[in-house]
Each structure stands twice: as C-alpha cells, then as structure tokens.
C-alpha cells in the first residue's frame, strides 16, 4: 500500500512528520482530502482543522490558521502560521 510522506510545520517548530495514509486540510475554497498518488497541488489554507491519518490508523488533529499545503508525488508539506492541538472535548 502506498503512503504519504508528511511534514507539518509552523514558523517556529515541527508539528508532525512521518508516513500517513490520508491527510485532510482546510483549503481556502473548501476541505481538501489528500491520498497517495495525487496530482501535484499547491493550495492556500484557511482557518480550520488539519487531520492526519497515520499508516496504522492513528489520527492527529490540529486547528490551524492560514498557510499552505504542497503535494508533489507522495510528499506532502503543510506550513501554517499556528497549529493548536484539538482536545477530545472540543470535537
């Protein structure tokens, strides 16, 4: 099974990096799902939720404010202004 190599950063820190089965980001024109073997894409991000589903099914969610996502091959780079952990009670 094909996976994505994901790097998720803010201006001052690395938020998450590793292999993932799927990524969902809040693109400026709506939610965007990213799967392996997707066409190269560059999108501006809005305020919203980034959701990374790891190879083993574990889910990481962060609230983000602005930024961009780049997809090239199976390499995904998410760069945002700020990213805060989502607590279970907020969902």
Automatic annotation (TrEMBL):
It is a peripheral membrane protein. PANTHER family: ATP SYNTHASE DELTA/EPSILON CHAIN, ATP SYNTHASE EPSILON CHAIN, CHLOROPLASTIC. Belongs to the ATPase epsilon chain family. It comes from Brachybacterium muris UCD-AY4. Gene3D superfamilies: F0F1 ATP synthase delta/epsilon subunit, N-terminal. One of its GO terms (molecular function) is proton-transporting ATP synthase activity, rotational mechanism. This is ATP synthase subunit epsilon. InterPro entries: ATP_synth_F1_dsu/esu, ATP_synth_F1_dsu/esu_N, ATPsynth_dsu/esu_N. Residues 4-83 form the ATP synthase F1 complex delta/epsilon subunit N-terminal domain. GO terms for cellular component: plasma membrane; proton-transporting ATP synthase complex. It is found in: Cell membrane. Pfam families: ATP-synt_DE_N. Keywords: ATP synthesis, CF(1), Ion transport, Membrane, Transport.
